[in-house]
Amino acid sequence: MLDNQAKEFAHDLTDWWFRLYENFVHACINMEIPEAAIEPHLNKLLPLIEGFITTSPLGQFASRLRLLQQFHVYIEKVVVLYAPSVTMVGRIGRLLQSISLFYSQFTPIVEIRLSQLRSDVDKEVKSFVQMASWKDINVLALKASAQRTHHQLHKAFRKFRAILQEPTAPLLAQAIKPSPQCAVSTIPTRSSQLEREVPQLDRPTHSGGHLTKLQTALEVFDGLARGGIPSFYSHVKAIEDFCERISGTISQLQASVPPPDTQNKGSWFKALLVRKKRAFAELLKACHKAGLSPRPVLETVSNHSSRLWLFEHRAAIDSLSLPTIKMDAYLDSILVGLPKLQASLSSHSNDISTQDLTKMVNYAHSVLHHAFEFRRSLCNFIENWKGIERLIGTIDTIGPDCELAASGVAATRSLLEHHSILCYTISSVEEILDITSALSQVYEQWVPFDPETLGKMDRCQGVLREKREELSLVLNQRSEGGLMLLSSGAFPICVSHR
Fold first, then answer.
1. Residue 93: count of CB within 10 angstroms of its CB
2. Helix axes of 2-10 and 107-131: crossing angle, nearest 10 degrees
3. What string of DSSP letters covers 385-430?
4. Beta-carbon contacts of residue 137 (< 8 Å; ≥ 6 apart)
5. Maximal CA-CA distance, the chain
6. pLDDT at residue 188 above 60?
């Protein structure tokens, strides 16, 4: 029963659906906003989107996040086909995706809080159901028991609805700590795939162009992979250990409480303050040693002060794994903590100097700048990597008995020639059939071809048309951006590299 109440409350978003549709979809399709006005429009739209999430009650938090994700998919797949401004549609889609991903980190906290509050109501309902008597033979007793049961259930439902309507804003103010289960140390320091020998390619001697030294290129690539990838993993592990030490020290200092048998708590708190000052000084030294800039560029600070800029550049990583989940958690922690750190400059404790705190804020800006730069490079790398995977998968479908005859411009030129020949052949056969039909109507007794020959010509014409359409489709893919591959004994293919 409580589950039904929770589902009804979570799905009660009808009014919000129309508001969001008007602000996202209707604005993209029916409003022609100039390029210069897109930025102010998005700055007005961002508080509305965040308010939709931050003002959500406990029982609707997950449903509102799903609604934003559904609008993001709808905008990127459907609305972009009809919108006059592709730039605005793309930015709104990225904004919705980033906001939904950012606030989804709070979903476990909201679910835990909701389950804790619901457990008390569950106990009340179960205990009352157990005490309720349904074995009375007396009709009046049964009626009184049913009325009493309905009254108690109504009270439980009202209490549960009040729990569902509790705000989530206090929970969203908490800092999210990255889960230790997502440690980058789970990445192997050396891939077993790199232990294989470089394959010897049996290429014909007449191969031209970039195929001439393909064996040498493969050996160079193997050397880079063997020397570069393991060292990259070792750097990642060192950064991971550094981050774990920082978060571990902060958690330890925050959880420090004086022992119950402490005689002089004043001295204990002074010692704790000394430990915190020493840890803060060591953190400043570590940031300086790591190469972080204590004086970031003004443009960087200005960008980080814009919440719109932060959300637009929090691009989704199209490869979910333990390291990327950990990276998202660290980035979101910075996005949550940086505004608080900046606000503390005007009202910080006297135990820390303004100069040191300003330096720490600047280090945080530098970390965030490098995080966004690496994130952008990683997204580009994943996109290129998936293009290579598509290329390899398509080449594997050609078959072992086929050889690569041409690629790139040469393959495209050859296909254009074949396409023009096909078009000429089809038009010629159509002209022959038209002339034959006209002569048959004029000279009824004269038939140049027997019915069997005409049937073969029709079937041949159908096959030629199918091949022309297939070639046209491949050529259209090439015009949209792709690598043309022409192999012996197989139909030509075009692999998109985007």
1. 21
2. 140
3. HHHHHHHHHHHHTT-TT--EEEETHHHHHHHHHHHHHHHHHHHHHH
4. none
5. 126
6. no
pLDDT of residue 498: 45
Per-residue tokens: 368: 């965030």
Q: Is 407 exposed, middle or buried (0-12, 13-18, 19+ CB in 10 A)?
A: middle
Which residues share a beta bridge with 407? 485
Rounded Cα distance between 144 and 125, Å, is: 18
Q: What is the dihedral of CA 143, 144, 148, 154, to 10 degrees?
A: 40
Tell me which H or E stretch contains 269.
helix 265-289
Of 126-130, 275-279, 290-294, 337-341, the range with the lowest mean pLDDT is: 126-130
CB 189 within 8 A of CB 237: yes
- The pLDDT value given to residue 316: 79
In 3-state terms, what secondary structure has residue 458?
Answer: helix
Q: So what's the pLDDT on residue 255?
A: 85
Please list, in sequence order, all residues whose beta carbon lies within 8 angstroms of the beta carbon of residue 402, skipping any fewer than 6 positions away: 487, 488, 489, 490
With CA atoms as reference, report the closest residue to 21 among 56, 59, 52.
52
CB 21 within 8 A of CB 29: no
* The predicted structure's pLDDT at residue 59: 87
| Span 469-489, average pLDDT | 62
Whether the predicted model's global pTM rises above the 0.90 cut: no
Amino acid identity, position 400:
P
Rounded to 10 degrees, the C-alpha dihedral 215/221/223/224 comes to 170
Residue 181, Cβ density class (10 Å: 0-12 exposed, 13-18 middle, ≥19 buried): exposed
Instruction: Please count the other Cβ atoms lying within 10 Å of the Cβ belonging to residue 82.
Output: 11
Q: Which of 108-122, 172-186, 406-420 has the highest mean pLDDT?
A: 108-122
pLDDT tens digits along 149-183: 777 777 877 887 888 888 888 888 765 554 444 44
Torsions phi, psi for 167 (to 5 deg): -70, 150
From 314, 329, 316, 320, select the one nearest 179 (Cα to Cα).
329
Q: Which two tokens stand for residue 497?
A: 């590299």
Beta carbons of 290 and 359 less than 8 angstroms apart: no
Token reading at 323: 């390291």
Q: Tokens 């129309």, residue?
A: 18
Sheet holding 493-495, edge to edge: 404-407, 483-487, 493-495
Half-sphere exposure of residue 138: CA atoms within 13 angstroms, side-chain side: 5
Interatomic CA distance for residues 305 and 338, integer angstroms: 9
Counting runs of H as helices and runs of E as strands, what totals does the chain give?
A: 17, 3
For tokens 């994943």, the residue is 382
Q: Which of 24-28, 182-186, 325-329 has the lowest mean pLDDT?
A: 182-186
Q: What is the mean pLDDT of residues 302-322?
A: 83
d(CA 332, CA 326): 10
